[in-house]
Structures
1.
Amino acid sequence: MSETHSGCGGRLQIVRGDITECAVDAIVNAANTSLLGGAGVDGAIHDAAGPELLDECRTLGGCPTGSARITRGYALPARHVIHTVGPIWYGGTNGEDELLASCYRSCFALAEQHGLRTLAFPSISTGAYRFPVQRAARIALNEIAQGLERLQTIASVIVVCFEGRVYDAYHDALNANAP
Ligand code: AR6
């Protein structure tokens, strides 16, 4: 991990890196409604976790857009994976903003139910699903700040940016919201 930047009283970090290397209570996966794997971060997480992750995902029966499901982490350094399904970008008038916000809220709800203290998020929907990254970063950081405010039991949230352009967008969005 490199190039870190922090906010929310030190409980939020923006880093560049690979989420599969994060030793946290749960990493979040940007999945699709089948929960049966795919490309991007989803493929990387399944590769690193091993085939037992797919076996458990098969038992879940999929997940609607904006919701989340939790599994074990298997061979990952993370104890759990929270699989959430971001919206596909269709121009912004199909409820995309609200569905993306709902992904983050659903992840925090699972973190609360399972007593998780450390979370790592990728930039949901900004790859194959084409959500504009500046807009996604504002929504993500707003929801993460609200989640941290509501759940004082969460010690840290890391946003893991795989690409420089994504890191820059989150960095700028965090600075724009700083008091
Ligand atoms: N660690 C952190 N972030 C990553 C990693 C990684 N190892 N690999 C990619 N990213 P995407 P989506 C970033 O396409 O847009 C899948 O096929 C990537 O740079 O993974 O929500 C699913 O099965 C980008 O910023 O997810 C779905 O079908 C971010 O992760 C679909 O893609 C999200 O890009 C979901 O599309």
2.
Amino acid sequence: MKINELQLSQVNNQIERLIAADNFYGKKLKEAGITGVKTVEEFEALPFSEKQDLRDAYPLGLMAVPEEEVVRIHSSSGTTGTPVIIPYTAKDVDDWGEMFKRCYEFAGITNKDRIHITPGYGLWTAGIGFQNGAEKLGAMVIPMGPGNTNKQLQMMMDMGSTVLCATSSYALLLAEEIEKRGIKDQIHLKKGVIGSERWGEKMRKRISTELGIELYDIYGLTEIYGPGIGINCKYDTGMHIWDDYIYLEIIDPITGKNVPDGEFGEIVITTLVKEGAPLIRYRTHDISRIIPGECPCGSKYPRIDVIQGRSDDMMKIKGVNVFPKQIEEILASFPELSSEYQIRISHLDGRDTMRIYVETNGHVDFLEIAGRIAETVKSKIGFTPLVKVVELGVLPRSEKKSKRVIDERYE
Ligand code: ZN
């Protein structure tokens, strides 16, 4: 997949606009001697932008239009350091709503649906993004926000919610509560739109089976509008990406070069029509790949695979590079285990060690299964972890992004 003529001219417009605005990013382009972009080669030679650049522009250095055109800001939920502020014009808000509406449509959701929104409202882009798209679609929005599981379930029953929007860990928590309370026959959910988190096939199956719903993965990040820049269709062969609004590349995170379609690498995104804060070749650090070929649904929108993790999640244990996803896949091959797990990395006596906590029920020999998991990790990845087996329900469930990997070396 290469950038096409129309997209190139759109990027060229974005560059010209940034330089004219003389904002933080426009200055950087000028310093690099860039005035525009005409060819694929020129595009692929443009410098990347990084989250740190966006932080350096705090608070409003990214603003690329006169202030009277800005109608809203959002901020990324930076857990450490300076947050990132993204200004939006009315058109940006509208474009984002159109993209999100398209996501719902690809999931077969209509204006007859009742959309139950549990992601948070506020500075970040989650709740309000789901809401804008749903209102554009003409569906009935139930804007719950996170937390208060009792009230969530009561409203879900009383309002007859048909679509659940949630993080995967909160969807799982709700599924388990519904099961525990024996109220499944009073729940009318048909579909789940699940965002903002990397999740395994096993967890997905569990949510889908326990709630009896079809699941759709939504992609997006605050720096680039928010959630809603792509979603899988009913054929579930990857997430379609709206390439009339954004251009997406996959690069080798080390060399910075584009990788061939089908190969995994880091997602890099360029906005094509954004006004408030255009970004050129923004490194997301999310790992995925372009899925080659055409989707059975016939849509021409390109597809990317499920997010495999973060390029900075890569761990080095006893000299071996490991992605949490690799451990997750091994755990998923043990039917005795639940979908919950926790990975802890620590530095003891001059060596890095990995401890893996998994859950199972009391009918399994804990020591025996721990031994088999350790052996499998050794044979498939190349080092031996410490495996600790606990009773079902012991590992923490969270309403926010699950913290499954805890690196104690830097705490
Ligand atoms: Zn499709």
